[in-house]
Design goal:
heterodimer; A: Rossmann fold; Elongation Factor Tu (Ef-tu), domain 3; elongated; B: 233 residues; alpha/beta; Rossmann fold; 8 helices
Chain lengths: 693, 233
């Protein structure tokens, strides 16, 4: 591996769904001689892109797991991470950005800046990652890179600067004009592998000169040398411009815009050149860690090979030879046989096999020096763990992890699946922090939770394929709750005095709605219930909260006030009072007009203006309440509150209603009472459920 | 009961009478900038909400948050005007009312009645409750807006909803011969009702410009709360 860190780039490719990230990565691998044949993402040969290594990815033509790969270009090492575009897998993007030094933001020349581009942009901001933009698909009809550059400015607030102009557009796309060297670039050969440099065509000359002027004007901000040259009307050299663009890009103050068409093999090589020219090397970037030994102060990490090692495990994968841990080394280096400490739990581990990924293959290496990305085998850890040399106690700043929003019950079909399922779940929860699982105490079912329906679907599919665990999935489930709406009294005597030791306890008081989950107030005076039995009463009442008498949903928001009672000198016991409390609760509860509450989600839909009305209609059909709709450029943002139970399958419906142009996000807002008609339906469903059992 | 009390105390009912709104018709509130068009429109909308009807508020200037604040403010003013009301009851009523209205913010140049139409169509198709009132706040009547108006008027009669507009007049422009502000005069035949708000000493005077028999009636309202001071013959 190169120890000259100036010649190392760790970059990611990220963008909206279907902007062509994977296609671009495929081309890059081809031009850097990593692969010898290009397979399309959804190509007819059925091979699928190399980067989409999972069968599932190839089938669906989407990227699920971000794949890391390594290649060389112009004597520079480039580590590339291809990230998924779909919102449900956003944690993958988040994770990748955490360890990257720069990003190629791919944008579609027709659709421009889309909602996921906005999400990615926010993530880049969070981790302060510099980026260059690549306007892809310039061969599509309706392509307009100028508009995309403008959108970058308007929608994302980037200071976008065109570095190229297209030669022809749509089906007439022939190549690009490089505004720095002022040369026209054409791409020849079966796969566009030959770059031909020619004079700019006469008809584009004026436009090119004008755009160059604009470009130089914009980038002169970042270089005094260049400004001086302009003012003194000296010759402006290429290196001056490159230097200025690089400085502006790394400071995240400007975004150079490139264009082409990965699918048509146009202008990918100049993009690679630009990665090297403009995106930062590991030494250009400040990385920080927290020092746990010194009051959690933040320390700056330097890409120095001799300093103690600090490395971050950012992604886990289950390979043939056990767990494969992708790791980025920030400081020092990882060598085979080194002892390192996992700073989360303080466990010492020995570094075994180290590898470097080349698309689908791996190459064994002896060392991962600072500034590089690699992977190690056989180390048990969770994603996001920091590994350090013994003696220091640093940890990298945590990643931003979202809470799961949807749950699903799964049941293995047979015993074998059962074992495989638990293996798979164990694996997945380690790999993906947004995927959770637990066993429901009531039904003994395994519940999985995730970021969206597609997210869970993919994991179930993976369980089937990779672990041979067949499972039956339940309906996506909503966590209902019960509560009471009015005050009700109870007076209950628990009495069993038929031979042997009897049981006796009487409780009386009232229950009423309250803000907290559960409250117990003891107002018994004069020792009507001896104080040593009071805790037993409270326990009895609290026990009823877990499963409501109405529909067996958990009960919340009840205050129990115990006013009076009676006991028996011999027959009263803790047990008897617990039973009395349960009886009392039941008696009061049914009189207190119990109702069902359901989770209400805040749903935000982003849609092109022409579908605004249709989207608002969709919300209304789902018992939703529209809070408002606001126009932002060509998009409308509709904010609403919709019951979670009505949101299942919404992504499909939204897609078909808006030609796939709208997107929505959803997060928990509050619990609200279920309308009577819906409550009746729930009760009915619950009863049928019971009958089945 | 609270609802009824509030409706009676509403300046809208007091000025325009009970049938202040006819479905399928247009109304306008006209004044100079800053007198209180929007706040008065909000009162109209609130009286509608109190009748358990739905309202869509389309604003061409204000962001959603601001619209929501205006409604809350309008409601509080109305509550205060009625006298003492159990705050808990008032809050509960507001919780019932708030979901019945929703705001749409669009930019002036992209405001398209087609979206509203799509929305109303989808409501109708699914047999959901239709809004009874649409408030259009901020449409520029200084320029020719006959196209938008004719589309909206079709919409109004098709879905039988009332539409109220705010109309900005200018201080220096005198009324036309017919006694209307110039903005209204141009499109006068479309509007069944029109109110003119103007500052008078420390109050606001509401002049009914158009409303059948009530024409030229004058009322005084408090500028801070939009509540009625007294009737003036």
């Amino acid at each position: 591996m190169l120890k000259d860190l100036k010649r190392v780039r760790n970059i990611g490719i990220s963008a909206h769904i279907d902007s062509g990230k994977t296609t671009l990565t495929e081309r890059i691998l081809f031009y850097t001689n990593r692969i010898h044949q290009i397979h399309e993402v959804k190509g007819k040969d059925g091979a699928g892109a190399v980067m989409d290594s999972m069968d599932l990815e190839r089938e669906r033509g989407i990227t699920i797991a971000s794949a890391a790969t390594h290649c060389e270009w112009n004597k520079h090492d480039i580590n590339i991470i291809d990230t998924p575009g779909h919102v449900d897998f956003t944690v993958e993007v988040e994770r990748s950005l955490r360890v990257l030094d720069g990003v190629i933001l791919v944008l579609c020349s027709v659709s421009g800046v889309q909602s996921q581009s906005i999400t990615v942009d926010q993530q880049m901001k969070r981790y302060q990652v510099p980026c260059i933009a690549f306007v892809n698909k310039c061969d599509r009809s309706g392509a307009n890179p100028y508009r995309v550059a403008k959108q970058l400015k308007d929608k994302l607030g980037h200071n976008s600067v065109l570095m190229q102009i297209p030669i022809g557009l749509e089906d007439k796309l022939k190549g690009v004009v490089d505004l720095i060297s002022m040369k026209a670039l054409y791409f020849d050969g079966d796969n566009g592998e030959n770059v031909i440099e020619e004079e700019i065509p006469a008809e584009l000359k004026d436009e090119a000169l004008q755009k160059r002027e604009e470009m130089i004007d914009a980038v002169s901000m970042y270089s005094d040398e260049l400004t001086d040259a302009i003012l003194e009307e000296k010759e402006i050299t290429d290196s001056m411009v490159i230097d200025a663009v690089r400085r502006g890009t790394i400071a995240r103050e400007m975004t150079p815009v490139f264009m082409g068409s990965a699918y048509k093999n146009t202008a990918v090589q100049p993009l690679l050149d630009s990665v090297i020219k403009f995106l930062p090397a590991p030494i250009d970037i400040n990385n920080e860690a927290i020092d746990h030994d010194h009051n959690d102060e933040s320390v700056t990490l330097t890409s120095d090979f001799d300093k103690p090692t600090v490395a971050l495990a950012f992604k886990l994968e289950d390979g043939q030879y056990g767990q494969l841990t992708y790791i980025r080394v920030y400081q020092g280096g990882l060598k085979k046989g080194d002892t390192i400490v996992n700073s989360r739990d303080g466990k010492k581990v020995k570094v075994g096999r180290l590898i470097r990924m080349h698309a689908a293959e791996m190459e064994d290496i002896d060392e991962i020096p600072a500034g590089h990305i690699g992977a190690m085998f056989g180390i048990d850890c969770a994603s996001g763990d920091t590994f350090v040399s013994p003696g220091i106690n640093y940890s990298m700043i945590a990643m931003h992890i979202m809470e799961p929003v949807i749950s699903l019950s799964i049941n293995p079909v047979d015993n074998k699946s059962q074992i495989n399922m638990s293996k798979a779940l164990n694996r997945f929860t380690k790999e993906d922090p947004t995927f959770r699982t637990y066993v429901d105490k009531e039904t003994n079912e395994t519940i999985i939770q995730g970021m969206g329906e597609l997210h869970l679907e993919v994991y179930i599919e993976r369980m089937k394929r990779e672990y041979k665990a067949e499972v039956i999935t339940g309906q996506p489930r909503v966590a209902y709750r019960e509560t009471i709406t009015q005050k009700a009294e109870f007076n209950y005597t628990h009495k069993k005095q038929t031979g042997g030791a009897g049981q006796y306890g009487r409780v009386s008081g009232f229950i009423e709605p309250c803000e907290d989950e559960f409250e117990f107030v003891n107002k018994v005076t004069g020792g009507r219930i001896p104080t040593n039995y009071i805790p037993a009463c409270e326990k009895g009442f609290a026990g009823c909260m877990e499963k409501g008498p109405k529909l067996e949903f958990p009960v919340t928001g009840v205050r129990v006030t115990l006013m009076d009672g009676a006991y028996h000198a011999v027959d009263s016991s803790d047990m008897a009072f617990q039973a009395a409390a349960r009886g009392g609760f039941l008696e009061g509860y049914l009189k207190a007009k119990p109702v069902i509450h359901e989770p209400i989600m805040k749903v935000v839909i982003e849609t092109p203006n022409e579908f605004q009305g249709a989207c608002m209609g969709l919300i209304n059909q789902r018992r939703g309440i529209i809070l408002g709709s606001q126009e932002e450029g060509v998009m409308s943002v509709i904010e609403s509150q919709v019951p979670l139970s009505e949101m299942f399958g919404f992504s499909t419906i939204l897609r078909s209603a808006t030609q796939g142009k709208a997107q929505f996000t959803m997060e928990f807002s509050s619990y609200k009472q279920v309308p009577q008609s819906v409550a009746d339906a729930i009760i009915k469903a619950k009863e049928e459920d019971k009958k089945k059992k | 009961m609270l609802r009824k009390d509030l409706i009676q105390k509403s300046p809208v009912t007091q000025i325009l009478g009970d049938e202040y709104l006819q479905q399928g018709k247009f109304g306008a509130v006209i004044s100079r900038a800053g007198v209180g068009k929007t706040q008065f429109l909000v009162q109209i909308a609130i009286s509608m909400l109190l009748e358990s009807k739905k309202v869509i508020h389309i604003s061409l200037d204000d962001p959603i948050d601001k619209i929501n604040v205006r409604y809350k403010e309008g409601y509080t003013n109305l509550i205060d005007n009625v006298g003492y009301i159990d705050p808990q009851k008032a809050a509960r009523l507001w919780e019932d009312l708030a979901p019945c209205k929703f705001g749409i913010t669009c930019h002036e140049n992209t405001f398209s009645p087609k979206n509203i139409r799509d929305y109303l169509m989808s409501l109708k198709k699914n047999a959901l409750e239709m809004p009874a009132l649409i408030v259009v706040d901020g449409l520029d009547f200084d320029v020719d807006c006959s196209v938008v108006l004719s589309v909206l008027s079709e919409l109004a009669s098709e879905f039988s909803v009332a539409i109220w507009f705010s109309m900005k007049s200018h201080r220096e422009e005198p009324f036309t011969e017919r006694g209307f502000p110039i903005q209204l005069d141009r499109v006068e035949e479309r509007f069944q009702k029109a109110l003119y708000l103007q500052p008078k000493e420390d109050k606001i005077e509401v002049v009914i410009l158009k409303d059948g028999a009530k024409m030229n009636e004058r009322h005084l309202i408090e500028p801070a709360t939009m509540m009625l001071v007294s009737n003036i013959a």
